[in-house]
Automatic annotation (TrEMBL):
Keyword line: Oxidoreductase
Family to which the UniProt record says this protein belongs: Belongs to the aldehyde dehydrogenase family.
Residue span, Aldehyde dehydrogenase domain: 17-475
Name used for this protein in its record: Aldehyde dehydrogenase family protein
PROSITE patterns with a match to the protein in the record: ALDEHYDE_DEHYDR_CYS (PS00070), ALDEHYDE_DEHYDR_GLU (PS00687)
Gene3D superfamilies with a match to the protein in the record: Aldehyde Dehydrogenase, Chain A, domain 1 (3.40.605.10), Aldehyde Dehydrogenase, Chain A, domain 2 (3.40.309.10)
Active site, UniProt feature: 252
Pfam families: Aldedh (PF00171)
Source organism of this protein record: Pseudomonas capeferrum
Amino acid sequence: MTNMNRKHWLNFIDGKWCDSEERFEVLNPATNQSIGTIAKASMSDAATALAAARRCADSRQLSAVRPAERVKWMHRIAQEILGLVQVGAHVLCAENGKTVDEAKDEFVEAARYFEYYGGMADKIEGVSIPLGNGYMDFTMYDPMGVSLQIVPWNFPVSICARALAPALAAGNAVVVKSPELSPLGMCVLFEAIERAGLPNGAVNLLCGSGREIGSYLAAQKAVDQIVFTGSVPTGQTILKLAAENATPCVMELGGKSAAVVFPDVDLDQLMASVRMGIFFNAGQVCSAMSRLVVHRSIYDAVVSRVKDLAQGLSVGSGDDGSDLTPVISARQLDQIQRMCQRAQEEGAVLVTGGETVSNCQGNFLLPTVFSNVRPEMNIAQEEVFGPVLVIIPFDDETEAMAIANGTDFGLVAGVFTQDLNKAMRCARLLRSGQVFVNEWYAGGIEVPFGGVGLSGYGRERGQEALYSYVRTKNVAIRVAGE
C-alpha cells in the first residue's frame, strides 16, 4: 500500500518502478524543509521510456482492442485513484503547499477525468461522406501513437490526468515528464494507474531535468505528439524542437486574465470570485483573475472591498487550513517580490500586502493588491503567478474591451454585470479561449479549455480535447460495377 511517509520515490518505466544514481530533493514550501527525494531520470531512462511507449503503440495493444476494453481500463483507473485520495492528498499538500482539502479535490478531479473520457473511449466515431454512385467514402480516427506530456508543478495530479486520460481513451501510449518541484503526488497517481493493469509501456513517468530529458524527448522522431503546460519561454523552446519533426503540439502557456466589472455588478458575487480567482492556490493558476478592470463610478468601492477581503485572509501552511498558502519556491517568491517592487517604481499604489510573512521559513507572500495601475505597466502585462491582483479603472465599454484585450495573452476573461445583452456583447469581443460571466472558474472538465496568442493553442478538457489525440484518416473507395 502507498506510504505517504516514504523518503524516496521512483520513476515508472515500462511497467516497473525504477531508481537512478542521482536524486532530486523535494521541499515543503511551507517550511523549506526536505520531505524526501525522487530518482532523477537520466537520458538513458528517457530513452528507455520512449522505446517502451513506442513498442506499446506499434504493437497496437491499446488501439486494436475493442474500445469497450479501454472503457474498462479507464473506469478501473478512476476507482483506483479514488482509493488513494487520502494518502495522495497529504503527499501533495506537503510537496506543493496547497491545503489538504484542495489536494483531495485534485485527486478526485483526476479520477473524474478518467471517468469522463472512459465514457467516450467507445464513441470515437467517423462519418460517411456521400460522393455519388460508384463511390464509398468515410473517415476514421487513428491514435497519434506516442504522446509526450510535460506537466507543471501547480496542479500536477489533475493536469497530468487532464492529458493522460484522453490520450489513453484514444489508444495512445504516453510518456509523462513530471515537474522537479512537485513530482510525488504524480507517483501516487501512477500507482493507481499501475493497479489497473494496462500493458507495459502504455504509461511511463519520468522526473528529470526539463532542460535535459524534456528537451531530448521533445526532439525525438519517435514522439508523435507533445502536450505542454507551463511558461511561455519553455513552451517556445519546445515548439522549436518540435518543428524539426513537424510534431503536432497542444500548448497551454498561461495568461494575464482580466475580469471586466460594470456598475450593476453584484459586489458580494464579485468578492467571492476575487477570492477564488486570484488567491486560490496562492494565485499559482494559469487562468487566475490577475487583472480587475473596474468602471470608474464604482472603482473606489471595489478597491475598498478587495482590500478588506485580502486583509481578512489567513496565511499559513496547507495542513492548517489557511486561506492563503505558500508559493512553490523561494525563487518564485523572489520573482514575485521583484515584480511588485517594479510596479511601485512605475507608479502603482500598493493597497495591501507586498511583503513576506515575518518570522517564517516558508515561501509566504501576503495577499497583494495594487490600484491606480495603468494598462501598460509591467505588472498589468506580465504573468506574476502569485497572489497579486491589479485593479485598473475604465470609463466606457470600448475602453474596457481594449484594456482586457491589451496583452499578448488570451486564456480566459470575465464579465460581471446583470445586463445579459452587455455580457453577451462583451463575450464576443473578448480575445480569449473562455469567458466567465458572473462567476470566475464557472464550468468544469466538460468544457473546452485553451487560449490564443501567447496563451497557446489547442484545447484540453471536454469532448473537443479528445480529437487532439487522434489523426483523421479518410478512405475513398471506387466501387466496381457502379
